[in-house]
């Protein structure tokens, strides 16, 4: 079942803001959201992807918690509420934060049955609370859907990155993960503080690929998602490419490493 829909705009100053970036697969699961982490060896060993998890107080540079490497146990982000659920922001009118701007394979490939391969996305991440939305969108007219042997298909602006907002409302948020040696736990908010928090969940190329030249068209690594997704015919697979602006500005020349949604 897809995520429940809310038309209430995301809080501009949430208690917790989670950002999803890179080769991640978001799917509804048990009223929450499971985030599969692409862990299969990619066709090009020159493009390794590295999982990163970081928590920091909003406005602060230094992390409260940090892990980078291969997940060996599921990372969980759980609010202490039996009625917790993950929903998506889908307004009745145009809004740049509309979660519908995310790439949902069920919508783009309606004749297919895309299913993540558990072997190559687990142990992954699970969150039981939050409102999903587009924290940013790609430049208008810049995104292209590219299939081998076909003309490029222009796309509307795409969610980049996807984010989720969580409000405490008198509750606590517990994060559990394994750092490769020991199990770790972090409870938010920290005692005797009025902090708000950012959580980064990323699976990006490391090192970052070179910045494309302005005025060119460059493709990211979106097609690598299909290495861990079953049920899609080879001829239906695609990549997401971008027309790089001739006038560069903040983050306009970086080719996004985009997460994907399945039946969201």
Can you describe what's shown?
The radius of gyration is 18 Å and the shape is globular. It has one domain (4-138, 158-209, 257-261). The model is unreliable at 247-253 (pLDDT under 50). 2% of the residues lie in helices and 37% in strands. The strands form 4 sheets. It has an 8-stranded mixed β-sheet with strand order 1-8-11-14-2-17-5-6, with no helix packed on it. It has a 7-stranded mixed β-sheet with strand order 16-15-7-10-4-3-21, with no helix packed on it. It has a 4-stranded antiparallel β-sheet with strand order 13-12-20-18, with no helix packed on it. The relative contact order is 0.29. With 264 residues, the protein is mostly beta strands. The N and C termini lie close together (8 Å). The longest helix is centred in the middle third of the chain and has 4 residues, at 105-108. The protein is built from 1 helix and 21 strands.
């Amino acid at each position: 079942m897809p995520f429940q829909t809310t038309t209430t705009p995301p809080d501009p100053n949430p208690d917790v803001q989670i950002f999803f970036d890179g080769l991640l697969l978001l799917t509804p699961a048990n009223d929450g959201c499971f985030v599969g982490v692409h862990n299969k060896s990619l066709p090009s060993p020159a493009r390794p992807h590295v999982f990163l998890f970081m928590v920091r107080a909003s406005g602060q540079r230094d992390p409260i918690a940090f892990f980078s490497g291969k997940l060996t146990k599921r990372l969980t982000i759980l609010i202490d509420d039996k009625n917790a659920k993950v929903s998506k922001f889908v307004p009745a009118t145009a809004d740049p934060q509309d979660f519908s701007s995310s790439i949902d394979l069920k919508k783009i490939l309606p004749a297919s049955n895309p299913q993540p391969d558990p072997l190559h996305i687990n142990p992954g991440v699970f969150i039981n609370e939050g409102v999903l939305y587009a924290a940013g969108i790609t430049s208008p007219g810049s995104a292209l859907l590219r299939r081998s042997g076909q003309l490029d298909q222009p796309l509307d602006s795409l969610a980049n990155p996807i984010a989720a907002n969580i409000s405490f409302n008198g509750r606590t948020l517990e994060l559990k993960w394994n750092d490769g040696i020991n199990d770790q736990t972090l409870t938010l908010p920290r005692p005797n503080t009025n902090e708000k928090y950012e959580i980064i969940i990323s699976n990006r190329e490391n090192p970052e690929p070179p910045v494309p030249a302005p005025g060119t068209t460059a493709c990211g690594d979106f097609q690598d998602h299909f290495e861990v997704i079953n049920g899609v015919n080879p001829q239906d697979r695609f990549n997401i490419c971008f027309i790089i602006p001739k006038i560069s500005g903040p983050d306009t020349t970086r080719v996004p490493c985009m997460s994907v949604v399945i039946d969201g």
